[in-house]
Amino acid sequence: MKHKIKYIFLFIIIILAILGASVYASDNDIVIVLDPGHGGDDPGATNGKYIESEINWKIANYVKEELDKVDGIKTVLTRTKNGNPELAERGLIARNNLADLMISFHINSSDRTTVRGTEVYITCNKNNVRFNEYSYMLGQKILRNLHALGIPYWGGLEPKIKLSTDGEKYLDGSMSDWYGIIRNPMYYGIPSILVEHCFISNRFDLQHISSDANIKKLAMADAKAIIEMAEKFRIDRTNNKLQATVLSVNVSNNKNGNYIYGEISITEKINDMKRNPIELPTVTLKSTDGKISSEIFINYLSGSKYYFDKFIDDLDTNKQYIIEVKSNNKLEKLISNTAKASIASFSSSNSKYKVTTNSNKIKINSNTYVGNINSEIKSLKLGSSNKNAYIYGEIIIVEWVNGKSTVPSAKPIIKLKSTDGKANLPVFVTATGTNTYYFDRFIEGIDTSKQYVLEVSSGSSNNTSKNKTMNVYFKNQNIGNYHDYKLYLNNNQIKFKLNTYVGNINSEIKSLKLGSSNKNAYIYGEIIIVEWVNGKSTVPSAKPIMRLKSTDGKANLPVFVTATGTNTYYFDRFIEGIDTSKQYVLEVSSGSNRNTSKNKTMNVYFKNQNIGKYHSYLINCNNNQIKFTK
User: Fold this and answer.
1) What residue ranges define each of the domains in the chain, with the CATH number in brackets?
2) What predicted TM-score, i.e. pTM, was given to this entire model?
């Protein structure tokens, strides 16, 4: 009997070793994921023997050791000692362990060795007190505790926020965070805090990570704050919901028969954060009497949208149907795991269908018609969003059916097409009234050498008219400036015309010197450059171009240029290995293709001077040329 107990105990030990990476917390436990930053082939910041990834690992484990002493708190590490999961994977580790909070441990670094101190980053999302508000409180406690160890604040006693720079947003509409270690857990409603304890590059901060004893003090400062605030981050797991809305239903046919298709919005509200389902949901077409149930094909599109389709020829048209959506999320419990959208009986004839909707019900009727398209432009304007230009406006579109002007039976199609037929760009369209439509199209990066028309077509496959497509007629007008071009309407076409000007270039050298970098010689200096437009001295409309050119025309070397003032510019050019048998001039040109002046280029005038020694040569400026003399 004793032997059996021994073997059972060994078996349990083996199982626990296999499952050691997972934490099985009770429903009442608060799960905190501890993330030692970097790791593996990513050491993070370094300073001699000090390696950030190793220090982060020690801090995280000291914090884990302290938190594990507290009843009701369970901890999970995102990596092994030598592991380095991707940031997205670290977020999934938090989600898969049903974490309430995530803390990421780091050591800072700077090129300026005088910079020192501690800082904390938190999420910008304020849609729940667990996110920004409680993270702010925890961040302040951590900062105060670290400050008590003698580490100054880097930027004050204020946890910081850094927003994404690409316009990315969370599904709840709020701007997403820049740091992936904060953003990825927040996708799952798990607040994450990034702690930069001190600067590895600063000699005073270095003392706080110079020994395991000092590193443990940092960890104790973190752990104390986390323990004080842990209960605040407890997630209410009884408030998880599935939300689904049928956005559109249409009918079409192919060689296999008739089918319905459309778009459906499906989101999960988990931990008070709206997100896309991680597992693909199951969508089913069910009769209201419960006798027919058939799965519908779905495919993810973008945002919260999914495409769906289902063949309908074999359906019992005497029944009514609902579209049911069921979550396949096996990890997080959902209060409501179905969503329904009522739809009407289907017709199973093989002719084309017309879809009408009323009170959330869809009727499908067979129908074709002849509808000649007609349109009248109400407005066409030029706009800009995040520095991306677009055209937009409003248009009236009708279909003439049996001599009567009717509202289009389906949303019309508008395209921006080049007159040479090579560009065919879809235009966004949405109804704004009975037969009026708003439209827009981004034109950033468009080929300005082409002319374009707006083409309007009937959006209904049931419309069999030969005149279901037409080009829109415009009044001749100027609608705005697109970069260096004037955008205007002429002869029912959208055209681009370069806004040109005559700007004679002029320059005055302020300094020309010889320098060396890593034993590579270069010339550098400062120059004043102006463009004379209509008799006035103006700042160049674009950064000027400078070249170092040999007088025999065989060498033509680009020169780096950057503005240092209103019309002053710094310039430099490496000359290591240059052909010293040649003479050179500095050429300045306008950098704008709009400048059509015949005098947009000039050679720079120099004072006669010796500017330094290059190997066994003296570099002289003489007669506005750069010369090398033995």
Assistant:
1) 17-233 (3.40.630.40), 241-366 (2.60.40), 372-498 (2.60.40), 504-629 (2.60.40)
2) 0.52
